[in-house]
Amino acid sequence: MAVILPRDIRAFLSGYRGLTSSPQQTESSDNLEFYRNRLRCQPDGLLVEEILEQGICFPILRGRIANRWKGDYLKLELGHGYIQWLFPIQEDGMNFAAQRLMPHEISAMRADAEVMRRIVRAYSMMLDFFGMRLQSEEKGLVGRASLPGSYSARYVNLLRAPHNNLRISRILKCLSELGLEHLNAGFVLHVLNEQSEHAELNTPFIRDSMDRWWANCIRNDREREWVAKVISKVRSGRLVFTRQMYEGVLEGRRQTMEFPTELLDRSES
Q1: R_g over Cα of the chain
Q2: At what angle do helices 163-177 and 204-212 cross, to 10 degrees?
Q3: SS3 of 13, please?
Q4: Other beta carbons within 10 Å of 73
Q5: Where are the alpha helices (DSSP H) in 23-72?
Q6: Is 192 exposed, middle or buried (0-12, 13-18, 19+ CB in 10 A)?
Q7: Can you say whether the dihedral through the CA atoms of 44, 46, 47, 49 is positive or negative?
Q8: Tens of pLDDT along 107-158?
Q9: Long-range pairs of 79-82 with CB within 8 A, sequence gap ≥ 24
Q10: Would you call 72 helix, strand, or coil by DSSP?
Q11: What count of other Cβ atoms lies within 10 Å of the Cβ of residue 247?
């Protein structure tokens, strides 16, 4: 029986076919200007570099102290306005001061190397918030946070704060829109390895978000179907998806541009 995908996922996979925008929206480039460090996000009033800055906090600037967001988990957990600015998609959100991602912005952002570096930095900041780290941008390889044991509390927060599931869906959609879709399978398969081999992040709510939303934030049909088959085999108990397998399939994709079928064939035997 075919799985009925959530409406927002169907819209995403269709490329938002039929989506209309007002003349004001089509002329606006707020997301592009923000990622070019020219426009302050609202309601926080910060430039993108002020959010992504990972160095020592600066002295008082313009009457306030410039904050370091990475590692400030309370700020990232309780703040809600920033996520639409850091990860814009062609959908409206709850922050009405943020603009929906416009098609003309997508091409301009993809063509700007500095913008793309900032997108990856934003993704890395959120991975740290989730208790993870980007080990290889080329492969999309994700691992646990680097400090021993530091991932545990972040995993617990991910289980206890389900609004982060929605954030992850937005992040993955944004990465896909901006030409970084290869990172998405790396994230999803890392979570699958944690569930399968280590019984981490393995609640029904996380599994539902992963199986219905996250794993479908991949527009490449072959890749999305491959990921779905691996998840199905893990869920049915036919496969334990180990870290060695995870690293192996990402390396295989790097070499051949496709996930290897051998894993699926082997798990059938």
Answers
A1: 19
A2: 20
A3: helix
A4: 16
A5: 23-27, 30-35, 48-52
A6: buried
A7: negative
A8: 999 999 999 999 999 999 999 999 999 999 999 999 999 887 789 999 999 9
A9: 79/44, 81/41, 81/42, 81/43, 81/44, 82/41, 82/44, 82/46, 82/51
A10: coil
A11: 17
CB neighbour list of residue 239: distance below 8 Å, 6 or more residues apart: 196, 230, 233, 267
Q: How far, in whole angstroms, is CA 3 from its chain's centroid?
A: 23
Tokens of 35: 């990622």
Residue type, 249: V
Rounded to an integer, what distance in angstroms lies between the CA atom of residue 183 and that of residue 236?
26
How many beta carbons lie within 10 A of that of residue 82, not counting itself?
21
| 256-269: pLDDT as tens digits | 999 998 888 765 55
Pairing of strands 141-144, 132-136: antiparallel
What are the tokens at 72?
């400030």
Indicate the DSSP class of residue 142. E
What digits encode the pLDDT tens for the residues 242-252? Answer: 999 999 999 99
Position of tokens 């869906």? 169
